[in-house]
Design brief:
It contains 19 helices and seven strands. The chain is an alpha/beta fold. It has a seven-stranded mixed sheet. Helix 14 links the parallel strand 5 and strand 6. The longest helix is centred in the first third of the chain and has 18 residues. The termini are far apart.
Length: 401
């Protein structure tokens, strides 16, 4: 495909307009425009800016950059392929676009540099000496992209597994804090209940929303985050949101609906003050309002409290005609979670067994009797037989070494 034909073809890209709107493509278009209009200085500037943008995005060439953009595009065709839908006109447009992008990626930099030099006065061509090159070649084609969409989905959900919902925006977490399941010791029955519920979600079965409650440091949040590292859970995505984001949750539900992945909406350390009316929003979402909650979504929350809405004596001694109804309204929120998992403090034997397991993981060489004696002495000064307490105890031994 010659330069002028490629330039016009890029202008007529239909199915992947989102790719064309990126700064890299603007410079690629400017480079071709400069060559076709015989404006050497403009072409040279566009070439330099294009090289800079590719290097800024750590791409060896246009093929690498285009392959990434096409794989994670959220344009109409990838979304259609993700749902395995049928639209012959859209498919034909997407196929044509991919062929055009492939031709662009295969442009040889030596050829481009020579054409730019030919458009400049002979006495200034030396300024192009040592012009850097990028790698030519296309590592993508229409069929492989379609297979990728069907296997992995599209957009951010194909690229990342953890997100934060903030001010109506979905922000990807590039390196989520997801402990391996083997790193978590103790509370095996509680974690198994959470994993079984999540496994059912991934299989497309009806599941419960989950409330993990109990003392601080027992591993409630770690249990939820470890789901990202569980084998066989690759289709799972976790979206963390704060209590303040409940008002925008309807928008989030619509965004996640009909995606191929399964989503956990994770609310950590959930509790409501007596005058906080946002608990009514959560109750409506848990129970379902006029708009159904998508089947690929479940809500998981952690709390240090069994009853999520704090009560005061005024609730029981207030001036309402029926104070009992006020109390029931506030205490019933936790009951909207179909699965409630209690993380209670460990007994002495469980705590010492946890200490033994963590010490073995960390390779600490301390006689067992001595380790237990020191652990119990630590626990007297630092109340709380929890995984967090056990890890803090072992850290104190490491510092002494």
């Amino acid at each position: 495909m010659d330069i002028d034909t490629l330039r016009i073809s890029l202008q007529s890209v239909c199915a992947y307009r989102d790719v064309m709107e990126q700064p890299v493509m603007a410079q690629a278009q400017a480079l071709l425009d400069g060559l076709c209009r015989e404006r050497g200085e403009e072409a040279a500037g566009a070439y330099a800016r294009l090289f800079y943008l590719l290097q800024s995005e750590r791409c060896a060439g246009l093929g690498d950059w285009l392959g990434r953009q096409l794989r994670y595009s959220q344009s109409p065709y990838p979304l259609l392929a993700e749902r395995e839908g049928v639209n012959p006109a859209l498919e034909a447009a997407a196929r044509r676009d991919v062929e055009i992008f492939s031709a662009l990626a295969r442009l040889d930099c030596d050829r481009l540099a020579a054409q730019i030099a030919a458009l400049l006065p002979r006495d200034v061509r030396g300024g192009l000496s040592g012009l850097p090159r990028w790698k030519a070649g296309a590592n993508f084609d229409f069929d492989s992209l379609t297979t990728f969409y069907r296997q992995h989905g599209t957009g951010l959900f194909a690229q990342y597994r953890a997100f934060i919902w903030e001010k109506g925006q979905l922000l990807p977490v590039r390196e989520p804090d997801a402990p391996e399941p083997g790193e978590l010791l103790g509370y095996e029955a509680q974690r198994r209940a959470v994993w079984d519920n999540t496994r059912a979600l991934l299989r497309g079965r009806p599941v419960n929303n989950v409330l993990l409650y109990g003392d601080s440091g027992t591993g409630k949040s770690a249990t939820v985050k470890s789901l990202l590292a569980a084998p066989g859970f690759e289709e799972l995505r976790i979206v963390e949101l704060q209590k303040e984001g409940l008002g925008d949750m309807a928008q989030l539900l619509r965004l996640l609906d009909r995606r191929r992945q399964k989503f956990i909406l994770f609310i950590d350390d959930l509790a409501f003050d007596q005058d906080d009316r946002t608990y009514s929003l959560l109750k409506t979402i848990l129970e379902g309002g006029l708009e159904r909650r998508p089947a690929n979504i479940a809500i998981y929350a952690t709390s240090n409290r069994r009853q999520l809405v704090r009560q005061t004596l005024s609730d029981r001694q207030g001036d309402e005609m029926d104070a009992t109804e006020t109390i029931q309204e506030k205490t019933a929120l936790a009951d909207r979670f179909g699965l409630r998992v209690a993380f209670l403090p460990l007994n002495k034997a469980e705590f010492l067994a946890l200490v033994d397991g963590l010490a073995e993981q960390e390779g600490l060489q301390v006689p067992r009797e001595q380790l237990h004696q020191q652990a119990l002495q630590w626990e007297l000064r630092h109340p709380g037989r929890t995984p967090r307490g056990a890890r803090q105890f072992l850290s104190s031994l490491s510092r002494k070494d």
